[in-house]
């Protein structure tokens, strides 16, 4: 085998990445720091001066801070349950993974159909006689309801992706460790926290990073449920690029999302660091 | 899409060939571009003209380029121009004086706009579209004492909404404040001009503060779900709102589906007048027209009542003159027509035009007004502080575009000032 072969095989993918990812990415970086051809921080000040910027940052961070831990716990539980099953394992796996097959906009619309004024929730409450006329849940006066609805939709939609990764991770852990712990009299909980979780760290890392990146890019679900009432970073990026036609500020927003993503990925990598010698 | 493009190309090509062969009067237009409207203009509107006309629509870019080229060359083949007010502002010097044409039947506010800030009649108003108010008939019984539906004031509108709210226990006013709603047009063309006589210059004046306070009072009686409303015809039909504001095209379904249930009426008036935002198209004659006499005759023909009605059928733009519409018009046209002519012909009519000269900054200009609304009304921030803050944003957009003032603001030399 010629020594160049691996590189040759990697070349098409690398070229693709260079042309369609790194090059446009570089353009966006430049775009965020220039205005009319001159270097400036104007795009960033214009972004931070806008009254919705602070709200957008905090809403995005809060969404991530609430959604991701809930999903982590749920995904761990679901993965453990699936792992323990003798029969019907793949059937359950498929059922859990159904929301994965739905686009995020469609997921947002499904939850909109539940929460809107003429939606399912109102019909159910009405048919039970709890309310006498349809309530407005997703109004501007109750942003927290919109926030809650977005959390629900996000949890429903994206927990499965973490679960799938964790199921794969659980499958990689050799049975002997658990059996040895059992022999020494460790309880179920002890085995989970002392054996399974540490061994699962690489998969947890992947799942968390993937999910946090997705959380910072949350967009379609928020737009479907809250319109512009609940500003998030990705929504503002879209707004500045297409509604306000200011690519510089849109690029600045993209930089903020990138910065947050990198920072949080580094934190996760650091927290779940696996020493080289301890890798399975 | 592709076939549509091909057809347009073919049509343009054939139109170019036909004009180069015959010595017709060429009507070079940015309006009636869709192929159906173009055909209707040729076959139903212009066929009745006593002379040969060739109607050729084009996008704003090519329209401007060809006109400028002919003006620069000092001779040309364009006989008459059809375009929006904003299209004419950049070529004002190339338009001949049409003061000789009788415009007594046209709403005076529009005639004034046709002068483009000069002493001569640069273009003759041709057709218009606009935003109006509509109400369910059952709302009419709550009209405040002595109020005339065809000449409401903002105070009366607020009182009306309050009456309905009190009597039915529900806020019944509806406003298109959803993401796709045209709320910014209401603030730009209706609310602010009615109180300040201005769209830009007096943005943060005391009168503007009054305007926003008046809107806050109206908002008390507005369906809070309005922040999700975009096409008010839906809420009218569903009964979620009884009195609404929107573009005529976004109200049409309500009138066409239940013609007996709804009425259309003019926008209310404030202390400075009855602000409204017409999308106004006009016809002009360039100084290089090969046959100015024939072109002027064509302009006169377009102003005739029958032609105006034929134009309405062809383009869905309303007449600029006051006339009775025939009975076979769609219900939406029947309903909106009188409201529009009452609004544009009112003594206190104050036309406020679509922004001119902003180019790609139009979105940011609109955002200033939407942000002001969201901050004052939805976020409950103090009116004075928000106006001062948003005035800065407005000034930045106007300065960046270097856009001079447009009606109703007085003409300016440089970028339109924000006081």
UniProtKB/TrEMBL annotation, chain A:
<dbReference type="InterPro" id="IPR052730">
    <property type="entry name" value="Sugar_ABC_transporter"/>
</dbReference>
<dbReference type="InterPro" id="IPR035906">
    <property type="entry name" value="MetI-like_sf"/>
</dbReference>
<feature type="transmembrane region" description="Helical">
    <location>
        <begin position="56"/>
        <end position="79"/>
    </location>
</feature>
<feature type="transmembrane region" description="Helical">
    <location>
        <begin position="7"/>
        <end position="30"/>
    </location>
</feature>
<keyword id="KW-1133">Transmembrane helix</keyword>
<dbReference type="InterPro" id="IPR000515">
    <property type="entry name" value="MetI-like"/>
</dbReference>
<keyword id="KW-0813">Transport</keyword>
<protein>
    <submittedName>
        <fullName>Multiple sugar transport system permease protein</fullName>
    </submittedName>
</protein>
<dbReference type="GO" id="GO:0005886">
    <property type="term" value="C:plasma membrane"/>
</dbReference>
<keyword id="KW-0812">Transmembrane</keyword>
<feature type="transmembrane region" description="Helical">
    <location>
        <begin position="250"/>
        <end position="272"/>
    </location>
</feature>
<keyword id="KW-0472">Membrane</keyword>
<comment type="similarity">
    <text>Belongs to the binding-protein-dependent transport system permease family.</text>
</comment>
<feature type="domain" description="ABC transmembrane type-1">
    <location>
        <begin position="57"/>
        <end position="268"/>
    </location>
</feature>
<feature type="transmembrane region" description="Helical">
    <location>
        <begin position="91"/>
        <end position="114"/>
    </location>
</feature>
<dbReference type="GO" id="GO:0055085">
    <property type="term" value="P:transmembrane transport"/>
</dbReference>
<feature type="transmembrane region" description="Helical">
    <location>
        <begin position="143"/>
        <end position="173"/>
    </location>
</feature>
<dbReference type="Pfam" id="PF00528">
    <property type="entry name" value="BPD_transp_1"/>
</dbReference>
<feature type="transmembrane region" description="Helical">
    <location>
        <begin position="208"/>
        <end position="230"/>
    </location>
</feature>
<keyword id="KW-0762">Sugar transport</keyword>
TrEMBL record, chain B:
<dbReference type="Pfam" id="PF01547">
    <property type="entry name" value="SBP_bac_1"/>
</dbReference>
<protein>
    <submittedName>
        <fullName>Multiple sugar transport system substrate-binding protein</fullName>
    </submittedName>
</protein>
<keyword id="KW-0762">Sugar transport</keyword>
<keyword id="KW-0732">Signal</keyword>
<dbReference type="InterPro" id="IPR006059">
    <property type="entry name" value="SBP"/>
</dbReference>
<feature type="signal peptide">
    <location>
        <begin position="1"/>
        <end position="22"/>
    </location>
</feature>
<keyword id="KW-0813">Transport</keyword>
């Amino acid at each position: 085998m010629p020594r160049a072969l691996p590189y040759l095989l990697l070349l098409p993918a690398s070229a693709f990445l260079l042309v369609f990812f790194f090059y446009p990415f570089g353009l966006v970086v430049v775009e965020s720091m220039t205005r009319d051809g001159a270097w400036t921080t104007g795009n960033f000040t214009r972004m931070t001066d806008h009254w919705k910027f602070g709200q957008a940052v905090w809403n995005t961070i809060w969404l991530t801070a609430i959604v991701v831990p809930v999903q982590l716990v749920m995904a761990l539980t679901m993965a453990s349950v699936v792992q323990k099953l003798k029969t019907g394992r793949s059937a359950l796996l498929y059922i859990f993974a159904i929301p994965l097959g739905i686009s995020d906009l469609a997921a947002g619309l499904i939850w909109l159909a539940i929460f809107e004024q003429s939606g399912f929730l109102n019909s159910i409450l009405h048919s039970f006689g709890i309310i006498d006329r349809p309530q407005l849940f997703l109004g501007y006066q109750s942003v927290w309801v919109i926030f809650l609805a977005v959390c629900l939709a996000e949890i429903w939609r994206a927990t499965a992706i973490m679960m799938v990764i964790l199921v794969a991770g659980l499958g990689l852990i050799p049975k002997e460790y658990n059996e040895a712990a059992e022999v020494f009299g460790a309880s179920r909980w002890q085995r989970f926290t002392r054996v399974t979780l540490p061994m699962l760290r690489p998969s947890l890392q992947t799942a968390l990073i993937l999910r946090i990146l997705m959380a910072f890019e949350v967009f379609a679900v928020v737009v479907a449920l809250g319109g512009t009432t609940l500003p998030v970073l990705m929504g503002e990026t879209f707004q500045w690029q297409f509604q306000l036609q200011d690519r510089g500020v849109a690029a600045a927003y993209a930089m903020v999302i990138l910065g947050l993503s990198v920072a949080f990925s580094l934190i996760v990598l650091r927290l779940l660091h696996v020493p080289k010698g301890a890798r399975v | 899409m592709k076939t549509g493009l091909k057809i347009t190309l073919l049509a343009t090509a054939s139109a170019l060939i036909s004009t180069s062969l015959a010595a017709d009067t060429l009507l070079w237009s940015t309006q009636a571009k869709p192929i159906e409207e173009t055909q209707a203009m040729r076959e139903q509107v212009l066929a009745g003209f006593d002379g040969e006309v060739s109607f050729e629509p084009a996008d704003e870019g090519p329209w401007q380029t060809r006109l400028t080229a002919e003006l620069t060359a000092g001779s040309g083949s364009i006989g008459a121009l059809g375009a929006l007010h904003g299209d004419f502002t950049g070529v004002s010097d190339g338009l001949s004086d049409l003061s000789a044409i009788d415009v007594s039947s046209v709403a005076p506010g529009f005639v004034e706009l046709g002068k483009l800030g000069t002493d001569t009649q640069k273009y003759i108003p041709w057709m218009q579209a606009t935003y109006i108010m509509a109400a369910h008939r059952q709302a009419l019984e709550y009209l405040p004492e002595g109020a005339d539906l065809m000449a409401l004031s903002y105070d009366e509108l607020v009182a009306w909404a309050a009456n309905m709210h009190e009597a039915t226990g529900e806020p019944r006013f509806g406003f298109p404040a959803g993401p796709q709603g045209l709320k910014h047009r209401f603030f730009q063309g209706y609310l602010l001009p009615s109180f300040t006589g201005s769209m830009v210059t007096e943005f943060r004046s005391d009168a503007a503060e009054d305007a926003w306070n008046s809107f806050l009072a109206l908002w008390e009686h507005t369906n809070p779900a309005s922040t999700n409303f975009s096409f008010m015809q839906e809420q009218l039909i569903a009964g979620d709102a009884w009195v609404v504001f929107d573009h005529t095209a976004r109200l049409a379904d309500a009138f066409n589906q239940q013609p007996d249930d709804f009425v259309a009426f003019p926008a209310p008036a404030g202390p400075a007048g009855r602000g409204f935002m017409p999308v106004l198209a006009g016809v002009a004659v360039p100084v290089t027209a090969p046959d100015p006499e024939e072109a002027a005759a064509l302009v006169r023909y377009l102003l005739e009542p029958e032609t105006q009605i034929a134009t309405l059928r062809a383009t869905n733009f309303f007449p600029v003159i006051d006339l009775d519409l025939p009975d076979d018009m769609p219900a939406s046209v029947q309903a909106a027509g009188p409201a529009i002519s009452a609004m544009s012909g009112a003594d206190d009519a104050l036309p406020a035009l679509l922004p001119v000269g902003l180019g790609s900054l139009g979105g940011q200009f609109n955002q200033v007004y939407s942000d002001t609304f969201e901050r004052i009304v939805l976020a409950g921030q103090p009116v004075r502080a928000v106006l001062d803050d948003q005035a800065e944003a407005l000034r930045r957009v106007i300065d960046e575009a270097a856009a001079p003032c447009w009606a109703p603001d007085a003409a300016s030399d440089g970028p339109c000032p924000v006081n």
